[in-house]
Design goal:
Elements: E1 6-12, E2 15-20, H1 29-40, E3 51-56, E4 62-69, H2 76-82, E5 84-89, H3 99-111, E6 118-122, E7 125-129, H4 138-141, H5 144-160, H6 191-195, H7 206-215, H8 222-242
Parallel strand pairs: 2-6
Antiparallel strand pairs: 1-2, 3-4, 4-5, 5-7, 6-7
Length: 252
């Protein structure tokens, strides 16, 4: 481990995940991305071939950049095999997305071969291995080979991942080999208040996530306060009508 990195208590394949004390800056994209890559891979700064950064624009909440060491003797496939992705969180998205649980989930998926290996965290994002592929369009998703492939992959996730079936527990087993780290709450609402929307069910679930989002809505005007109240009523009604249906897994 580099002397400039530290442990953060989350594990990848039994090893403590590296924490880089660095931050990606949109205003200094090239320079900050280069600093991250060279801190993680000092050897990329030596030898032939420049470091190339390729931005991806398909996401809506994060900045996603592919980093490639353009070694002249490598084929395109070899370059992609060595390439990494830098994912920087969007400003304020921690209100909607539990970044600690997201990182824990990524580690868990990688342990089961369902996600690329997670290489490091930095102050506002993650670095992980690149996987070749292409983004599906709406038209692609209507093609039978595509949607059947998606269904098979989801079935594989459900078959392999250690999930708690019943009870008021986390939806990921505590003994799954990946420590579950709780994010600091961004509002005055405690986990008990958020989870109260579906008492007795594993958390997080779709309802507790929606409840967290509603709690995060601004209330600085009467119109916003009224809108929040309407959304809360609609969520409560949806939970009452839909949360106890059997579902494919028999646990709603």
């Amino acid at each position: 481990m580099s002397p400039h990195s530290a442990s953060n208590g989350i594990y990848q394949n039994g090893n403590t995940l590296r924490q880089l004390p660095l931050c990606y800056k949109n205003a200094e994209s090239q320079a900050s991305a280069l600093e991250l890559v060279l801190t993680l891979f000092p050897d990329w700064g030596r030898g032939e071939g420049e470091i190339i950064f390729i931005p991806f624009t398909d996401g809506i909440t994060n900045t996603l950049i592919k980093a490639v060491k353009n070694r002249p003797v490598y084929s395109e496939e070899q370059l992609d095999k060595e390439a990494v992705l830098i994912r920087a969180y969007g400003n304020g998205t921690e209100v909607l997305i539990d970044r600690e649980r997201e990182t824990t989930s990524h580690c868990l998926l990688a342990q089961h071969g369902l996600a690329p290996p997670l290489l490091a965290r930095f102050e506002n994002g993650l670095i992980y291995k690149f996987i070749r592929g292409q983004v599906c369009t709406s038209a692609d998703l209507q093609k039978e080979p595509i949607w059947r492939g998606v269904a098979r992959r989801l079935a594989e996730w459900h078959a392999l991942l250690p999930i708690v079936a019943h009870g008021r527990k986390s939806a990921i087993k505590e003994d799954a080999g990946v420590p579950l780290v709780q994010s600091p709450l961004t509002s005055s609402h405690t986990p008990d208040k958020i989870n109260a929307i579906t008492p007795g069910k594993p958390v997080p679930n779709i309802w507790t996530v929606m409840q967290k989002w509603i709690f995060a809505l601004p209330t600085n005007t009467k119109a916003k306060l009224d809108q929040k109240a309407i959304l809360q009523q609609e969520l409560s009604r949806s939970v009452a009508e839909l949360s106890n249906t059997p579902g494919l897994g028999g646990n709603g």
